[in-house]
Amino acid sequence: xxxxxxxxxxxxxxxxxxxxxxxxxxxxxxxxxxxxxxxxxxxxxxxxxxxxxxxxxxxxxxxxxxxxxxxxxxxxxxxxxxxxxxxxxxxxxxxxxxxxxxxxxxxxxxxxxxxxxxxxxxxxxxxxxxxxxxxxxxxxxxxxxxxx
Length: 148
Known about the structure:
Layout (H helix, E strand, L loop, with lengths): L1 H4 L2 H19 L5 H15 L4 H27 L7 H5 L3 E9 L4 E6 L2 E7 L11 E8 L2 E6 L1
Parallel strand pairs: 3-5
Antiparallel strand pairs: 1-2, 1-4, 2-3, 4-5
Helix pairs in contact: 2-3, 3-4
């Protein structure tokens, strides 16, 4: 029994189970890649390959899984990233409530009921009250806009 517990087949099997259990507990795609590497090493141990080959296979397969499949897997695990409030404003149409003049340092616009300091993307463009503009960028607490 002790001989079996020290055999590479048993060790790789235990490691694979540990990686799978950790993955089930964390559900964050953290260790499933190493379970795949342990499976490759386990199969190589079953067919009688030397331990150095098993170890190399473990690291190589784990790396390949991490490098090539993780980006695709993350898209399916976390497909709906929710934007923060300010990111949702970019691209929206807003109303100018105070004349936007970058040289004079004036301008406000209302978006979702909140008043923001607004600046034009181009310094020489002046935007009058009541005009609709599109939010291009947000820097700090200022909307950078462009006329529609």
